[in-house]
Design a protein that fits this description.
Length: 145
């Protein structure tokens, strides 16, 4: 056979190239299996869950957004936990807890901040409308007199 590196002929019994010293691949050995890095990928999805969980906590006071990040955090964290990879489980579990806590906080924020704010705004608008109506009523009555 011939050397992969320099191309010179190598007698079949030799394990290194006599010309350049490169190791000769054993033609009978199975081709090295290239793993698609499952560890990195599962870490990635667990990390995505963790990031979404943190975003949910940080953005919990905003209406709407924490529900999206919380849902994504739940999905990614559960996917991360489902993978058979011990290293990513911590991040996935943290992401799951943060997503749930952030979701609960955002529901609390919705009732404590957003809905009272909207209610207050509507009440103020109603008051403005009725005071406008009464002011117009005064104008109208003076006009008719
Ligand atoms: Zn060689």
């Amino acid at each position: 056979m011939y050397c992969n590196k320099c191309g010179s002929y190598i007698p079949s019994k030799r394990t290194v190239c006599s010309n350049c010293g490169a190791p000769v691949p054993d033609p009978n050995a199975p081709a090295p299996v290239v793993e698609p890095e499952p560890e990195k990928r599962s870490n990635g999805i667990a990390l995505a869950g963790l990031i979404m969980g943190i975003l949910t906590i940080v953005l919990c006071w905003l209406p709407g957004i924490p529900f999206i990040t919380g849902l994504l955090g739940l999905i990614f964290s559960i996917a991360g936990l489902a993978k058979k990879n011990a290293r990513s489980k911590g991040a996935a579990a943290a992401g799951l807890i943060l997503s749930i806590a952030g979701g609960a906080l955002s529901v609390f924020a919705l009732f404590a901040i957003t809905i009272p704010g909207v209610t207050k705004y509507l009440a103020a608008a109603e008051e403005a409308k009725s005071s406008y109506a009464s002011a117009m009523g005064v104008v109208w009555r003076n006009w008719m007199r």
